[in-house]
Amino acid sequence: MSKNPLYDALADPGQLEKLYELDPKLFRSNLTEALESNPDVALLNFWKIRLEHGSGIDNRVSIKELLNLLPICAVAFLALRIPVLMSIQPEWYFPRFGPLVVFVSLIFYFLKKGHASKKITFGLSAGVLSVVLPMLFLPSDYESSSILMAIIHAPLVMWVLLGLSFTGDNWRSDGARLNFIRANGEVFIYLVLMGLGGGVLTAITLSLFELINFDVSLWYFNNVVLGGVVSAPIFATYIYIDYMKSNGRIASNLANIFTPLFLVTSVVYLVVIAMQQVSPFTNRDFLIVFNGLLLVVLGMTIFSICGRGGKSSFTLV
């Protein structure tokens, strides 16, 4: 059981405001817990009244916040343009550094919000360097299983570091970790929607220029599409964190719908395998597909748990 961070912030109203901006849902949960043990603290009661009378979502777009995103997106775009600017082989560069550029941009976005201590910031910097530097010296032998595994697992390590930048000093809190997982699901949904919109825009744009016999496909993909791909995760995160105030529930609602369906599919499939007397341990492709199905079910189960809200009690073992 982690210590309630609101206790340490009672002497600093500004810190309470930062905790609320970082994660409104976790703040509400911590506030309820703090009021149960300290019902006479005036500052806590002030926050209770404030939240009760201001529970609506302010959907106004902050121009200042959007302008703060532009330098991050610009630097990320230039980082992905390094193969062209410095004559580096794209086949060597993008598998190693393409995903890392996106993760580093998101980590910097959370650090820029100013909620992490210097200790967390130093740890994140060291962690990022420990992932990026080995990628520079890996050989180009893609037939080596060790090199492929290193390239595959590097984004997973960066995802863990992204979680640390999201939770900040509350990284020990189970609620903060679950909120990070919930945010992943919501941001992924926004990314899919943005990708669909971007695909339609690309198709229309190329078709319009093709009608006048003007080929812009190469320039468009090297600049507009590349910039959109690297900027979409950053803007999707902004939409969920700052615009929606972390109140989206799309991922958890979809998980509640599809989890039973996938569970039934898995059970029926296992029954058919048993009836057909097929051994799942002799077919590599089967194992890969079935493991993928199990991962999907696990992910949807986690999002279902995350969507229960603060009133539902659950335990992670």
How would you characterize the overall build of this protein?
- This protein has helices at 5-8, 13-22, 24-37, 42-53, 63-80, 82-85, 90-112, 118-137, 145-167, 174-211, 217-243, 250-276, 284-306.
- The protein has 317 residues and is mostly helical.
- Helix 3 (24-37) packs across helix 4.
- It is globular.
- It is built from 13 helices and no strands.
- 77% of the residues lie in helices and 0% in strands.
- It folds into 3 domains: 5-53, no CATH class; 63-243, no CATH class; 250-306.
- The model is unreliable at 310-317 (pLDDT under 50).
Q: In sequence order, what are the helices and strands, one letter per element?
A: HHHHHHHHHHHHH
> What structural category arises from helix and sheet content?
mainly alpha
Helical content stands at: over 70%
First-last Cα distance = 13 Å
- What's the overall average pLDDT, rounded? 81
Low-pLDDT stretches are 310-317
Overall strand count? 0
From the spread of the alpha carbons, the general shape counts as: globular
Number of domains: 3
Task: Give a short account of the largest sheet.
Answer: none
Query: What amount of the residues lies in strands?
Result: under 5%
Q: How many helical stretches?
A: 13
Radius of gyration: 23 Å
